[in-house]
Protein: Methylenetetrahydrofolate reductase
Amino acid sequence: MKVIDRLNLAAEEKKTLFSFELLPPVRGKSIQSLFDAIDPLMEFKPAFVDVTYHREEYVYKELQNGLFEKSIQRHRPGTVAVCAAIMHKYNVDTVPHIICGGFSKEETENILIELNFLGIENILALRGDAAKGEASFTPHPEGYAYASELVEQVTKMNEGEFKYADETGFKGGFSIGVAAYPEKHMDASNLDSDIDFLKKKVDLGADYIVTQMFFDNQKYFDFVERCRTAGITVPIIPGIKPLTTKKQLTLLPSIFKLDFPQELFTEAQKCKNNKEVRELGIEWGIQQSKELIKYGVPGMHFYSMGRSTSVKDIAEAIF
Ligand code: FAD
Structure:
């Protein structure tokens, strides 16, 4: 079932959807670790499960003559296959993330045809981050610079317009989700322009939005208000990441350019070990989730990062 149909149904029934995001296993590792992370969360009947996509990394092998040979490796391969495996094992809808970075338009079209063939009806369309070692995002020469262009390609395919392949066998369209940043995307000059570009993604066919993680609900409430004022009417699902280690207090702001509320930061600093941080993270996550549900969010989307224990504890308290 399409995510947008689930969201519309949940809105009619005044329900809040539960969903979570996983990373594909590292190359060479078993998919079992992923199943172990999913098992404890199935009792909360996830509406969908997202699986991230990871662009290639360059590997340099030293040759005899002192030169280097550059080759490409995927550190976490198999998003499409992992989605299909989860869907068939758990009978749950999966949402593969599709990124612009590292892909030509033709390769993207092929991935989408493959997804359709597998019966996967949803995607989250993203630009992707800069490749390791690159200062800023460089588009594939035959690919896209922005997620909005990817959204446009998927919408055109949904309408039957194919550029490279024979469309025979394409069974219908995708529900398209896109990303948004209540605390502004790191490359954006300001929040208003970021919201204008978000609106462009929606105008080109995105039918729902998932936000970057945030720890201060007011940031989300203000963001939703600004989006509505800008004319964005689609559901905006909050993304929640439970704090689990002290290191994340510096790591998460540096990677995602977000702020920790002073209260959470101070309490986490006082924790004697990561067990205490984890307990604090769960308590914060429960309070955050309760307030968001009271506000009327369409769903609660959790960044599990492959570890489900904190998400399970929060889900137990709110669903
Ligand atoms: P875009 O919407 O293209 O925006 C990127 C930047 O460009 C923004 O600053 C925006 O304001 C600006 N911009 C947009 N359009 C224009 C324009 N026409 N002209 C000028 N500026 C413009 N990354 C992965 O690699 N794999 C994943 O699986 C993944 N999953 C994610 C899931 C979620 C829910 C979120 C929030 C992020 C995820 N990311 C993932 C990270 C994401 O790829 C990065 O944040 C990336 O830097 C931006 O992606 P985007 O789709 O938001 O880009």
Observations:
- The longest helix spans residues 274-295.
- The pocket of flavin-adenine dinucleotide is lined by residues 52-53, 55, 97, 99, 126-129, 146-148, 179, 185, 187-188, 193-194, 197, 201, 210, 212, 239 (CB under 6 Å).
